[in-house]
């Protein structure tokens, strides 16, 4: 019996629901493979570019190009794991120790000064009680956070899972890089011939969005994080690396990283130096970063491809994390890019439909 259109649609919907439920159940298992797929997606363009390079008459083979890119990626990740992450963890620990001093300074000095300038009356405000309350909250939060870190780091299963992933992710990434073009071609060959052109065009647009937003934006984030960290370190600011890299990572949402970075760095500069010169230097660092991003980094690395709206990015990351944990955060932007392209195609089809044009004719 031939399947009707409604039956086919219900079957597709049921398969999608079942697929999402399966991903939810297998999220811990899928996560290292998803990380490997993301790394392979980042590395494949460089592999393809190396394959087009000719040294005299010798052309670089796919396996050699994959090996070169794999070593570069592994070296970068090793530097991040062994140097940058311990540095940031140490700065976080220092922040936990120093924040009570900041709270006391804010309640005893900064808040009364702001109230005087703004004309507020703080006669009934107990700064000592306010400071004590904030310190108690911070002590509870930091103690709980460190307990979670200690449990995770000391748990045998967690350590075993971490070691397994550290071995599994590079191996899977290498094989995916080597066979990426074959996998894409295999998926292409399975497409229904009647829909092959439309699906290929949609997939090409999705790849452009992802390339612009993921590959390009990631490089922009790293570059801004380095600029901010180095600049704030030269100023002599405490927690320069933590603030700089945090601002760089938050720049995945336009302007969010620079705004939060300026506010936090300015607050630290006021507390640490208590003069206008270092505050101006902090603003200068972020000004240089914004000029570099607007004049060079974004035009050169991201380009003018259609990207994702900042609100879409925030919602996708939060929704993905809520539904599927870390795997959801990892897959949030690729899924959002696919939906962004599909919605654009649906809007174009709607504007060409009789429903839209008949309404326009009646209105005229």
* Cα shape: globular
Element-by-element helix/strand order:
HHEEHHHHHHHHHH
Major sheet attributes: 2 strands, antiparallel
Radius of gyration: 26 Å
Label the structural class.
Answer: mainly alpha
Q: List the strand order in the largest sheet.
A: 1-2
Oligomer state equals: single chain
Mean pLDDT: 80
Number of helices: 12
The residue fraction in helices comes out at over 70%
Strand content: under 5%
Could you name the ranges where pLDDT drops below 50 across 5 or more consecutive residues? Answer: none
Task: Give the strand tally.
Answer: 2
First and last CA, distance: 47 Å
Structure notes:
The protein has 12 helices and 2 strands. It has helices at residues 5-25, 27-51, 62-118, 127-154, 156-190, 196-235, 240-250, 256-273, 276-302, 310-324, 326-352, 354-363, and strands at residues 54-55, 58-59. The two termini are 47 Å apart. Strand 1 and strand 2 (58-59) form a beta hairpin. By secondary structure, it is mostly helical. Helix 6 (196-235) runs antiparallel to helix 7 (240-250) and helix 8 runs antiparallel to helix 9. The chain has a two-stranded antiparallel ribbon.
């Amino acid at each position: 019996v031939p399947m009707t259109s409604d039956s086919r649609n219900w079957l597709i919907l049921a398969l999608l629901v079942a697929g999402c439920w399966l991903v939810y159940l297998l999220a811990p298992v899928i996560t290292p493979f998803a990380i490997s797929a993301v790394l392979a997606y980042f590395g494949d363009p460089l592999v393809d570019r190396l394959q087009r390079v000719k040294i005299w008459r010798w052309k670089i083979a796919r396996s050699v190009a994959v090996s070169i890119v794999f070593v570069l990626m592994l070296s970068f990740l090793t530097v991040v794991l062994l140097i940058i992450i311990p540095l940031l963890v140490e700065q976080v620990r220092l922040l936990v120790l120093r924040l009570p001093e900041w709270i006391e300074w804010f309640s005893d000095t900064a808040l009364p000064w702001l109230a005087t300038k703004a004309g507020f009356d703080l006669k009934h405000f107990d700064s000592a009680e306010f400071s004590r309350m904030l310190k108690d909250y911070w002590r509870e939060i930091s103690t709980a956070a460190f307990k979670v870190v200690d449990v995770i780091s000391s748990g045998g299963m967690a350590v075993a899972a971490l070691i397994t992933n550290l071995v599994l992710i590079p191996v899977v990434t290498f094989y995916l890089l080597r066979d990426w073009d074959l996998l894409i071609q295999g998926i292409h060959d399975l497409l229904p011939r009647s829909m092959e052109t439309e699906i290929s065009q949609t997939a090409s647009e999705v790849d452009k969005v992802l390339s612009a937003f993921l590959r390009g934006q990631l490089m922009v984030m790293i570059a801004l994080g380095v600029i901010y960290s180095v600049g704030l370190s030269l100023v002599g600011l405490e927690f320069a690396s933590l603030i700089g890299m945090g601002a760089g990572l938050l720049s995945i949402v336009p302007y969010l990283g620079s705004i939060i970075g300026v506010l936090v760095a300015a607050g630290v500069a006021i507390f640490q130096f208590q003069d206008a010169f270092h505050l101006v230097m902090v603003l200068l660092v972020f000004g240089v970063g914004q000029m570099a991003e607007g004049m060079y980094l974004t035009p050169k690395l991201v380009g003018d491809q259609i990207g994702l709206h900042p609100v879409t990015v925030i919602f996708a990351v939060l929704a993905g994390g809520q539904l599927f944990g870390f795997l959801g955060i990892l897959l949030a932007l690729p899924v959002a890019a696919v939906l962004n392209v599909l919605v654009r195609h649906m809007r174009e089809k709607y504007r060409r439909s009789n429903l839209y044009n008949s309404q326009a004719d009646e209105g005229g």
